[in-house]
Amino acid sequence: MLQYSQSRARHRRILEAHRRRVFALIPAYRELDESVSSLAVNTLRERLGGEGSSDSSLRPALLKIAARKRELLRKNGFPEDYLEMQYDCPDCRDTGMIGSEKCHCFKKREIELLFDQSHLGVLVSEAGFDKLSESYYQGEDLRRFRNARDASLRFVSEFGTEYGNLYFYGTVGTGKSFLSACIAGEIIKKGFSVLYYSASALFEKMASLSFDYRSRDKALSLAEDLYTCDLLIIDDLGTELTNQFVSAQLFTCLTERHLNRKSTIISTNLSLEEMQRRYSDRLFSRIASSYTICKLTGKDIRILKRRNQAQHHRREPLSERHYQESEEITGNGIHEKT
After folding, report:
1. If you placed Cys at 230, which of 92, 178, 192, 267 could pair as Cys (CB 3.0 to 4.6 Å)?
2. What's the pLDDT tens digit per position in 92-110?
3. Domain architecture of the chain: domains with CATH
């Protein structure tokens, strides 16, 4: 709301600068502007004096003055709306609200703020379908990876026209979170809103807001964002401290999004049986009935990458420049190579 207030103040300053410029360059315009005030005062005086309403004569006079003012602006090289208040968003006039509803620009700013807070920008910048590699998978693991990749590409291509959800599960470090980030990047490019939360951070935030009566408005706002953003990604489900509150909030969130036809991606290291035992049968039923389920298995890619990097460094020959840069002068002034 502070940003909206600053936007209105900025446009008022611009308008006032325009007025000063026009008044200085076009004296006749200033006279017309002042005549409007005089006309309004005279009309009010007539009403108070019991001479009846002058609305029928006032409106044509005001329209005539407005037309003359536009003509003066045009003849002097100014746009006709030069002295009209401008807005970043004409729909809500930089208030953020249309009636009692949030304006589309307000929702966009909210999503941008939440996007920054979720650190999704960092994840997306490091991900991309072009960076996926089959070299880390073999046999059945490779087949599952290809199925998950194809489901992800299909999800992206149909997003906005077909409603769908994805559920990635399997062993640690097999690319579940990376695939989610790849999808998020493509959906953002399409102009849709995306929110990303790790499960532990999400439910910790929901609990802190829900159990603090002073944060009721913030809790309602968070719930609205979670229920209505175009794509919600819940990463590492199962890493949070699971209890009755978490199970109920998760089921409510997924149900509301399903009713709103808003897509969700969930990634977890839990097997389907573990997920069913930890949460509830109705949550399991919701996921089984409305999510494309993709299993990813194999070795931990992060460990493989670190191992490959270490082997690369060990094999890399030391250059002459390396030796030169490693020379150090000892306390006796003798050069030694390390």
Report:
1. 192
2. 999 999 998 889 898 778 7
3. 2-75 (no CATH), 118-301 (3.40.50.300)
